[in-house]
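Can't attach files on this board, so I'm pasting raw text. These are the components:
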Amino acid sequence: MQPSYVKVFLTFARNSLIRDMSFRTNFIMQCLSSIAWAGMNFALFKIIYQFTDSIGRGSGWEENEFFVFLGTIWIINSLIQTFFMANAQEFSELIRTGKLDFALLKPIDTQFLISFPRVNWSQVPNGLLGLGLVIVSVRQLQLDPSKELYFSVGMVIIYLIFVICGAFVMYSVMIILASTSIWLGRNQNLYNFWFYITNFYRYPMEIYQRNGIGWALWGTFTFVVPILVVSNIPARVLAQPLGTPFKTWELGLAAYAVIAAIGSLFISRSIFKLALKSYRSASS
Amino acid sequence: MAIIEIEKLTKSYRVYQKKEGLIASIGGLFHREYREVKAVQAIDLTVEEGEFVAFLGPNGAGKTTTLKLLSGVINPDSGACRVMGHVPWERENEYRRRFALVMGQKNQLWWDLPALESFRLHQHIYGIELGQFNRTLDELTEMLDVSHLLGQPVRELSLGERMKMELIAALLHSPHVLFLDEPTIGLDVIAQHKIQQFLKAYQEERKNTIILTSHYMKDIAALCQRVVIIASGSIYHDGSLADIVDKFSSEKIVTLQLSDEASLTGLKDLPNILEVQPPRIKFMVERDEVGQTLSEILSQHCVDDVVVEDPPLEEVIASAFSEAQRSREKETSTPEQVR
Amino acid sequence: MVHTRVMTWWTFFLISINERLVYRGDFMLGTLMRFLPTLTQIFLWWAIYDAISTEGTANSIAGPDGDIAGFRFGDMVAYYLMVIISRAFSSMPGLTSGIANQVRDGEIKKFLIQPVDMIGCLLMQRIAHKLVYYFIAILPFALVFWLCRDFFIDGWPPADVLIVFFASLILAFLLGFFLECCIGLISFWFLEVTSLTFIYMLMNFLLSGHMFPLELLPESPVNIRIWVELTPLKYLAYFPAAVFLGKIRGAEMYQGLAIEVAWVVFFIVLSRILWRRGVKRYSGFGG
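---
Top answer:
Structure tokens for the assembled complex are below.
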């Protein structure tokens, strides 16, 4: 009588799809909305690159490299939005209404049960767009004679591994934030807070490497809440802004990315369990 | 060994005070006052397998909190408890597979999807084998007469139908122990009746242990042999319904149908007249005086029909509650702490 | 009669304020978080200007030199900060969907039997919300702006510009409110206004100056700039900021203000019309 986690997840995915399809207009709106947001961002940087050659002097983040970075962000965002965002918000609601009780009654891991029920299919096109952008930009880099892009299937696999590590880190941050609603009550700000924090990882980390505050931010978001590694590591693998990708410090950072991913999963699970202990349920 | 053993279980809540007025609300940003509510105070209870027990009590008495403690949804402050040998708040999967909690005021089914989809999800979560699942589902839907509604989105069902679906969801994994928190609340009389009958038949067939909380006397009278009155977090009475009536109602209601109007005027001086509707008269009499009063009346007047009955159960229970509250207040001599 | 009306509005106002203060942890957190993206923006633009500056990477607060569409580095940062202020006045989260939901769920009924009309009620709620929010937020706002004072290369603008600036803020609030109100009121005719909201949001991003100063919009190959003049969206973010920073001066400034007033009046009138017609058409869905 063991629960099959795979079957449960597939049921979640299927139920979510059925539900999304029954609210067709809403679904399409959300698809278009996220695509439009991505499009806006793209347009903004297209305009900016009219005025400048690279972001950060000598950082190597020229137009195509940067669009690899941007596409990577879209892919990771899509993963988060598709699989986790709605569930994190729902978790806060479950706590507020006391419906978390039902999750606690089921003979299945509670964290699993609250992390995956809602699969937001409308955010998938966004990710596909990101993939497209990455592919196109990498191609441009390959065709550019002034850059020696090192490209192989191995690089792609490494890239995907780091993207998934990134998703793990983001998931952990999200779970930790969602768990705080047990102590902080209605957390409508959760979504805002999430947006404000994750805003830091949306650009190459070189931009922070300049003064006291900058380095402090760089340090915080690399070592304390390692979201900078989420976007930068995979992007560097493919875009190679400074030439060949095997510099020592880059390798170090890459190894760190894997450690951060695993570590953050552990920490988030501990915090989640701690939060459950404080759960008060809601009076009827 | 009893299937449910509770020993000195205690749980308190902090309730934050919210003051009136703008300045006070702004002050509330920086410091909040709260008071402790002792939801459950050191209760002891034992339930044997196969019993159908009712928790009765005024709102806020601690019935739901007790059920939540038994389900492992919340942790107690102190005390011990074992259900089927497990400690509920450790939330072992082993334990969770063997019991179910139904809450009448909360809905766990996916709102926009047919109930069937939610049931399938349950099947995977509980790891119920497909054949078994189908059999159980057929049985339950037939008993509750909802087979034709399985494909309809839950939001389109009526309150009664939704409640039936919630019950089915809870019973799909054939739990050994069942906790029902006000399952018939808000339902119309017919739906209530159907659910009562269902629960009765279900329990008789499977002999599981059920704890039911309800405000509806009909539910309790129809289903439970044992009634536990909980008030202000403590158990006030534990016994059968008949016991309660005996203990808490000291009077009986007598209805007389008189053969002539003249007798009616003669009886107008009776104390405790409830209702006069010629040729009927209804009045209250102390239990031990019923015989004497009746024989007096019968000897003096011509009576066609006599009915002697207990006061409505609701009234008996209500007086039991208020008595419980009063004695509770007397015992707690210190007022609630206000910090 | 007027007195009772005012009193009822005042009561709604107070109730709304009270509602806002119930969850305290939420409140404090939200105020501080507002400025985190600005930090990233500052670093981003520094890096962008870096590549075009002639003096190499400057570590001083004055930053690199160089010019993008007439904006120096300091101007760019100052612009984004001022846009936060404009949007503090003009953004109306949840207003459109709130109205649409109320129409769809039939909650409109309660406004039909109460002496206060829905739009007035919502207006009071919004004023209450913004007042409370920004009353508490004045401190962090002031702190941030003081820390960033060096980005305001030209310092405080002259008094007449300041007056226009404040007027444009109030107008931005009214414009934002009544515009979104109108969109929401369309739900009397089309239950699903999400598509319209979406288009509005899209245009807002592009044309309000929220994402970047409107000077950056290209004029070729597609002349997007022309759309800026045709819609009132620039008043929601760009206009107050541009006025404060001296990007719009003199007669142009007063003209812009006058046009803004016209737009505000237009939407107030439109909302009244839509409300009256909508209520007449209302057949009581849901409930």
